[in-house]
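Friendly challenge for the regulars: who can give me the structure tokens for this chain first? No prize, just bragging rights.
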Amino acid sequence: MTTETNIPALASLEYIPFIDDNGQLPEQLQGKIGVYAIFDQEKVLQFVGYSRDVYLSLKQHLVRQPQYCYWVKAQTIERPSRTVLENIEHAWIAENGSVPPGNADSKDKWTQPIDVKVVMTAEEQANYHNPVNDEMAQTKIIKNVARRVEAEIIAVLEVRGLQTQIRFNPKLKENGLLDLK
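First reply, four minutes later:
Bragging rights claimed.
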């Protein structure tokens, strides 16, 4: 539990594996309000954020940026206070000495649904932009692209040993977006 004057140094916190030996995310953070720092395989800080449910946020970041989510450090608080959370977030970024990539230019990749339109193959783009296609045909193409990208993400996470179930919101797929349900 943290108060505004008692901000723990990021360096003083333990590294928690993003995916443990049983293939699970850090369940001790389920339903917890707090600030978290995400590190890559070499323990280089990639993103600092805060959430009303740290576990769900970590799960979301894992599907959006699996190549950067290997370690996490977290500080939970009992009562939601945006001021306290933001103060910890700013202190950790300052302690790092530079703004992590996920809090700078690539913030959208960490915080927004995956836009599958930007990862369409040349063939998928040609089919999508074919003037013969009506809106329904385009929706079908986009859904298929979303399914392909979803399968690629799940395959990467399975290789990493993830056992936690990942379910994407099916309604967003027809808009070309992937986000967890």
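Helices lie at 54-64, 82-96, 107-111, 122-128, 135-159, 170-173. The chain has two domains: 10-111, 114-178. Your move, everyone else.
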